[in-house]
Amino acid sequence: MKYIYYFIVISLLFFQCSKKDNSLKGRLMEYKSLFKIQNDNLLIISMDDCSSCSSYYKEQAKNFQESGGAVIVVSKFKKKANGFLNLKTKNTFHDSLHFSKKLNLEAGLPVIYHIHKSGKIDSLRLK
Amino acid sequence: MKNLLPLLFLLFSIISCQTDKPNDYLIFNDFLTNQVSLSLDDSTSLDFFFIYTYSDSSKNFFLSLNPITNSVDKYSLESCELVKRISVPIDGPEGINGILQGFTYHNSDSIFLYIKGKVNGGIIINDEGKFIDRLRHRDVDSEARTLINHTSTGSNPTIKINDKLYFMRYPLFDTYNPSNINDQYPLSLSYDLTKKELEFDSLITYPTFYQNEIWSIFDLTYSRTFNEKKQTVISWPLLDYLLIYDLQNGKMSKKSAKSILDKEISKPYPGTPRADQPDNTTLSGLRYRTIIYDPWKSLYYRIAVLPLSDVDGKQYFPNSYEQEFSILVLDQDFNLLKEVFFPGKVYNHFNISVNRKGLLLMKNNQFDQTLNEDSLRIDIFDLSL
Predict the structure, then answer these.
(1) Does the residue A10 lie in any domain?
(2) What domain count does chain A have?
(3) Beta-strand (E) ranges in B137-274?
């Protein structure tokens, strides 16, 4: 019983001490790995925050994809995401669990991230 | 004694997690009278943001603006089927020519479709999708009179009464500049369909409690409803009373409509809040939202959204869908009859509507793990019971 107690305490300490990379780069890398995205140009569009923005967002998304970037459509609803941008299209990803918000990568407005080879990150919020 | 400690800790944790509801509080299930499930095709998303309910002499309909198909979808609440998909003209001289934001289904001859940020340019079609007319007011050159952040959502619809469309509008200015929160900015306007004129309602502005202070942006939007006495009734998130404006004589009165759990008076920010502060403030406090008048039962329903206990890192959208809420039921003289409590993560408290069948609550809450995107479930409640 005593050993189990020590094991739990040490496990808890271990989990608390294992640090996550909470930098913007770390969060972006985590986000990319969740969806197995290779691209370093990302446009994250949250569809559930603005109900009347879809046609504007659609235009932005298509332009971005044509320039070679990857688009991540954030929406709980698959039909909505697919109706907005065919999810089978190359470089299109669906974040149905709002990981973008959990990782603090967007807060409603669409945002573009460009990760340079040097590791520097440019970001631009679309209005 | 040592063995009792974990038990005491557990008990304390359970007690501290509970909201402070009275022991005999009323629960939603006791008022549930009907459930419908609308079948959704592959081109219909479950989120149903712009909705409208309509009843004719014998049938009840649930309508929604479908942004995927650019149509007004009309569902029968009796057969639960999509009975009509009314195409919205998008381009050309009869097209909406802008971003669709909201609609009013007045009847089968008059469906008003609105453009985002404007009244001018909206169109009127009929049930067959035929263009009838365009909303076009005279002073279109004045930006102050054309750039209008109207709402036109399900809970805050634009309403047609006689020859006028009554719009609500939300601010388009810096809301963290306290001098903008004043009694000079009209929050309501009407469009006269005969005269083709806009009229701003100077009576409906920020209430005194709000004026010259800084508040969370999510607490600056109001809800309103109309009754048969030519009165408009307004619910503000931070006010434990309703404001009643008489459209005939311009007089305003207040009526208490307070939740039993409302125990805290909100305080303004001393300065511009940090980026995450408004989300935390609004999610962690009780806020009054939609007010609905039920003309079939002569009752008012006021939604009180209850505080969320853990708000760290959460955003108002989407985390408000996690919040529990209550519905205050008031009679036609604004006497509080009851308060009924609803769970979080089940219903969509942003979009509640009423028709002859009762109060319609959509079960499309995005935190509900059992959601099925092929159907929209609607629970219908009779809160007069």
Answers:
(1) no
(2) 1
(3) 159-161, 164-168, 188-192, 197-200, 223-226, 231-235, 241-246, 252-256
**pLDDT by residue (tens digit) across A34-83?**
999 999 999 999 988 777 777 788 888 889 999 999 999 999 899 888 88
From the candidates A20, A79, A94, which should be mutated to test the interface with B, based on the most B CB atoms within 10 A? A79
Q: How many CB atoms lie within 10 A of CB B346?
A: 18
Whole-number mean pLDDT of chain A? 84
Predicted pLDDT at A9 = 53
Domain ranges of chain B: 23-266+277-381
CB-CB contact of A65 with A89 (8 Å): yes
Is A49 an interface residue toward B (CB < 8 Å)? yes
Q: Which of A45, A56, A57, A76 to mutate to test the interface with B (most CBs of B within 10 A)?
A: A76
Q: Give backbone dihedrals phi and psi of A102, rounded to 5 degrees, phi first.
A: -60, -35
Neighbours of B194 (CB within 10 A): 8
Residue A40 belongs to domain spanning: 21-125
Give the residue from B346, B336, B341 showing the smallest Cα distance to B371: B346
Q: Are B63 and B75 in contact (CB under 8 A)?
A: yes
Beta strand spans in A51-91 (E): 70-74
* A84 contacts on B by Cβ (under 8 Å): 68
CATH number of B23-266+277-381: 2.120.10.30
Between CA B46 and CA B38 the distance in angstroms is 10
Instruction: Identify the CATH number of the domain in which residue A90 sits.
Output: 3.40.30.10
Please list, in sequence order, all residues whose beta carbon lies within 8 angstroms of the beta carbon of residue B185, skipping any fewer than 6 positions away: B171, B173, B205, B206
Taking CA–CA distances from A85, the nearest residue in chain B reads: B68
- Give a yes or no: residue A11 inside a domain: no
Taking an 8 Å cut-off on Cβ atoms, the answer to whether B366 and A52 are in contact is no
Would you say residue A1 lies in a domain?
no
Torsion of CA B31, B37, B42, B45, to 10 degrees: -10
Cβ pair B99:A107 closer than 8 A:
no
Do A77 and B313 make contact, defined as CB atoms within 8 angstroms? no
